[in-house]
Write a structure and sequence with these properties.
- 44% of the residues lie in helices and 18% in strands.
- The protein contains twelve helices and ten strands.
- It has a seven-stranded mixed β-sheet.
- It binds S-adenosylmethionine (SAM).
- S-adenosylmethionine binds next to loops.
């Protein structure tokens, strides 16, 4: 058995784990169950060394000190958020957007020239937002008449940094259809880097900013056409889910759509007034 003194050097005490779990749930809405404890400890070690604290517990004891708090909260959020994403993740949503949602939204505008607004509200590294951009650009090339603006928001500054650069490693491109690969990605001049970048035409229409879905109000237009809120609600408590969905819907124009992840169709019981078009697609 390890001596207790070594344990405190490597592990968080129960009290300190609770401090972080309560802080994160209060600020971000994400629950941190005991099962996440090892992951949290593992990811925090690097930060503890960088700040020259002797162990994790000393780090937590100093967390609320003055200016240090805001910076550390940002780091903690980067550490605890799950940022898994993909291009064309849950592809049926993009088919629905192309074949049903956009035609119906354009029809409702009575054929007038329209600028559609789309929002990827837990955008992670931007793959969801750039997938939307690829599909919309392709529609325009194929004769649909509209302009569009895409907003990506997330609480994690680390993923937003990646989203803004739009530089990815080639291995994430597998789900992208062949013609889109050629049209929408540029290879790095340094072939050995294995990196690609989204073309400037799509980057120009896609903007990112930091936003917390837990905030009381969102600094976003109230006539958004389609909101993607996928694979983030599952981390929230039921009441938080309800508030977030209600607030997101208040940013949709009448007839606008909310798309949630495949394991998040509970949104319907959270807000029964919403019209459920498909299990994970809702309309206001
Ligand atoms: C699993 S990723 C999903 C990314 C993308 N929507 C998809 O489905 O591929 C969840 C994202 O939600 C973000 N997130 C978690 N809590 C958030 C909050 N309170 N406000 C905004 N974003 C949050 C995380 O930083 C993470 O990037």
């Amino acid at each position: 058995m390890m001596p207790a003194v070594q344990d405190t050097a490597v592990h968080l005490s129960d009290r300190h784990f609770r401090t972080i779990a309560e802080l994160i749930e209060g600020q971000v809405g994400i629950k941190l169950p005991q099962g996440k404890r090892l992951m949290l400890e593992g990811r925090l070690h690097k930060r503890v060394r960088a700040l020259k604290f002797s162990d994790l517990n000393e780090y937590v004891e100093n967390l609320f000190e003055g200016d240090h708090f805001e910076t550390e909260l940002t780091h903690l959020i980067d550490v605890v958020t799950t940022n898994k994403t993909d291009f064309f993740r849950e592809p049926q949503h993009f088919t629905f957007m192309r074949e049903v949602a956009i035609p119906s939204l354009l029809k409702a505008r009575g054929g007038k020239s329209a600028t559609l607004k789309l929002w990827s509200s837990a955008s992670s590294t931007g793959m969801e937002a750039y997938t939307i951009a690829m599909v919309l650009d392709d529609m325009v090339r194929n004769g649909s008449r509209f302009q569009y603006r895409i907003l990506g928001t997330d609480i994690s500054t680390a993923v937003l940094r990646l989203a803004k650069t739009a530089i990815y490693t080639r291995d994430v491109l597998a789900p992208v259809p062949e013609p889109f690969l050629k049209r929408y990605f540029l290879s790095s001049r340094n072939k050995a880097s294995g990196e690609v970048r989204v073309v400037p035409e799509l980057r120009r229409t896609t903007h990112f900013m930091r936003m917390n879905l837990m905030d009381k109000s969102y600094p976003v237009d109230r006539d958004v056409d389609i909101i993607f809120c996928r694979n983030v609600l599952i981390y929230f408590e039921r009441e938080t889910q309800r508030k977030v969905v209600e607030q997101l819907c208040s940013h949709l124009r009448p007839g606008g759509y909310l798309l949630v992840g495949h394991s998040e169709s509970m949104v319907h019981s959270a807000l029964p007034g919403l019209k459920q078009v498909q299990p994970t697609i809702f309309q206001v």
